[in-house]
Amino acid sequence: MAAPASTREPHSKPIMKLVLASTSPRRRDLLARIGVVPDRIAAPDIDEDPQAGELPRVYVQRVAAAKARAVARAGDEIVLAGDTTIAVGRRILGKPADEADLRAMLALLSGRRHHCLSAVCLIGVDDMLRTRLSDTVVAFKRLSAREIDAYVARGEGMGKAGGYAIQGRAEAWVRFLSGSHSGVVGLPLFETRALLEGAGYPLG
Fold first, then answer.
1. Secondary structure class of 75 (helix, strand, coil)
2. For the whole prediction, is pTM greater than 0.70?
3. Strands 129-140 and 91-93
4. Which residues are catalytic?
5. How far is it, in rounded angstroms, from Cα 83 to Cα 64?
6. What is the Cα Rg of the chain in Å?
7. Cβ atoms of 157 and 99 closer than 8 Å
8. Which residues, 6 or more positions from 63, have their beta carbon under 8 angstroms from its beta carbon?
9. Backbone angles phi and psi of 199, in degrees to 5
10. Per residue in 9-31, pLDDT tens?
11. Given a cut of 70, is residue 202 above it in pLDDT?
12. Using one digit for the tens of pLDDT, what is the confidence trace for 91-109?
C-alpha cells in the first residue's frame, strides 16, 4: 500500500557538481574561503596569447570563457573558470617569459598605477555561459633596482600575471588598492559567489 501523501518523501533535486577549470592552487584556496570545494579539477588547454589589437578587458574575458568551454562536462556539472591579467593602459602584461621579461615588467609597474583585470566565467547546467569582470586599481611604490633584483632572484613572480604575487612579498609594495584583493590573487570572490548563486549552486 502506498504511503499517505503527507508522509511521502519529497523528490530530491539532482546534485550539482562543480568543475574548476584551473589547476591553480590559489584559486582552490580562494574558493575554500567561501566554503566551496570543487568536485573535479580540469586543466584547460587553450592558446592564451592576446589577439592583434585586443584590449585588456576584452582579452581577459575571452580567455576565461575559452577556458570554461575547453573543459568537457557531464549534464549535472557546472564549469567555473577564471583568468587574470595586468594592464598598463592598453598594454597587456601576462606571465613573464624569463627573468629579463620579469625585470622589465616590474620596472614598468614601479611607482605607477595599473589595472588588475580578473574575469570569472561559469557554464551552468542550462549550457548558458555567464561572465563577470573585476577591475582593481593597484599602485606600487617606486622600486629600486636592488628591490627588483632581489624579487627576481626569489622567483616569486614567475608564472604570475604582471610578474608579481600580491599574496607574497610584493604586497609590501602596494601603496594603494581600490577593488578586489582576491581578484588580484586570481579569483574575485564577490563575482564568483554571484555567478554560483545565479547558477543555483548550493552555498552555505
1. coil
2. yes
3. unpaired
4. 83
5. 5
6. 20
7. no
8. 46, 48, 83, 85, 119
9. -85, -5
10. 444 445 889 999 999 999 999 99
11. yes
12. 999 999 999 999 999 999 9
